[in-house]
Design goal:
This protein is mainly alpha-helical and about 375 residues long. It contains 13 helices and three strands; from the N terminus they run ααααβββααααααααα. α2 runs antiparallel to α11, α5 runs parallel beside α7 and α10 packs across α11. The protein is globular.
Length: about 375
């Protein structure tokens, strides 16, 4: 690595630059992110029963997230590559600290209080730390991948995922593990090994069902298979969610005219189940518009990944893009009743600050990869 990259900005090496390049921004990503944030505030105002204070807090979160994104976009990818092992180890230390001295809320031990920062959730950091570390590890290994490289990657993935699952937070653990597996897939994992892993997942899932999963996690899977078994209890959320989605029809009931969320039938209408409230008011056309914005972000991210010559940047950008897709797919899948409810927010639409900052940081990494001069170690 060129250590002068820590001190000399990469844009000094470019003789001609557009204003976007000088600021290390990608106009397409910025436009799509702004559109999603505006849409998110619009939906939040209605889904939260016109709670202006909640909308204001979300605006502040968006502002902080954009600042984080801009700062990360300015830092050259070479710096991220050099600091990746340190970032990963710090994330592991925080996860261990959560298990020892973490705060317990609603039966889960997921937070740790840091002086001057308040309570933080270290598992959110690993959503970026995991793909960064796997990209760092695999970018140094030749293709085809050796068994040592694959096993080393799996160890890097399993350790933080197991610590997060123990909190318990199975949804985040699976998302973190998936972000690492995406890097392994993009690095050239053979289809025969992927098929073998899928076959192996059957006995592993059986073992996890009987010996690892908690009772409430069993209930979520059973509710997915038959929500009508407990209409007033475990099945209430998904039944009301599907009712709200169906009630929207093609054109929706109209902004601020949704009944499921405004009359408190729909739980968590401004967080995990916000897409149901959105669908009720804006209908199928509104959902298709939202999906179009998500597809634009995904396509741009995959383009950035595909055109970069450096393996670390290419693997990291690809993993960020595919992880973003998984967040959208899992949230919409659980709200529509095709996946168990795991508490994954809808990117940039659900209320919440930490998730927004993490997502924006990921897109800051993408802009850094795209707007700095291409380099290869």
């Amino acid at each position: 690595m060129r250590y002068r990259d820590f001190f000399i900005p990469d844009n000094a090496l470019l003789p001609q630059q557009t204003p976007w390049q000088r600021w290390h921004l990608d106009p397409w990503l910025i436009l799509l992110l702004l559109a999603l944030c505006v849409l998110g505030l619009t939906v939040l105002y209605s889904a939260s029963a016109q709670n202006s204070a909640l909308v204001l807090r979300q605006m502040v979160s968006y502002g902080i997230a954009f600042i984080v994104m801009l700062m990360m976009a300015w830092i050259p990818p070479s710096v991220y590559r050099a600091l990746t092992p340190l970032f990963y180890v710090m994330g592991l230390v925080l996860l261990v600290a959560v298990a020892v001295i973490g705060e317990v809320r609603m039966g889960a031990q997921r937070w740790i209080r840091l002086p001057g920062f308040g309570s933080v959730q270290p598992s959110e950091f690993m959503k970026l730390g995991m793909p960064m570390m796997c990209a760092w590890w695999l970018s140094k290994r030749p293709q085809p991948l050796s068994w040592a490289a694959i096993i080393g990657s799996l160890m890097l993935i399993v350790l933080p995922a197991a610590l997060i699952a123990k909190q318990p937070d199975l949804g985040t653990a699976l998302l973190v593990a998936a972000s690492g597996m995406f890097v392994l897939f993009l690095a050239g994992l053979s289809w025969s090994l992927i098929a073998g892993a899928l076959l192996l997942s059957i006995p592993l899932a059986t073992f996890a069902w009987y010996f690892l999963l908690h009772e409430y996690q069993h209930q979520r899977v059973l509710t997915l298979l038959n929500p009508d078994a407990d209409v007033q209890g475990a099945g209430w959320n998904i039944i009301q969610s599907k009712t709200a989605i169906g009630a929207g029809g093609v054109f929706g009931k109209g902004y601020l005219d949704g009944t499921q969320s405004h009359l408190a039938f729909l739980p968590e209408s401004h967080t995990d189940f916000v897409i149901a409230a959105f669908s009720e008011e804006f209908g199928l056309l509104g959902v298709l518009t939202l999906l179009l914005l998500y597809a634009g972000l995904l396509a741009r991210a995959l383009y950035i990944a595909a055109q970069h010559p450096d393996s670390y940047c290419r693997l990291l950008a690809g993993a960020i893009a595919m992880s973003f897709f998984i967040y959208v797919f899992v949230n919409m899948g659980m709200v529509s009743g095709i996946l168990p409810v795991v508490g994954v927010p809808l990117p940039f639409i659900s209320y919440g600050g930490t998730a927004v900052v993490t997502l924006m940081a990921g897109f800051g990494l993408l802009m850094s990869i795209h707007t700095h001069p291409n380099y290869q170690e």
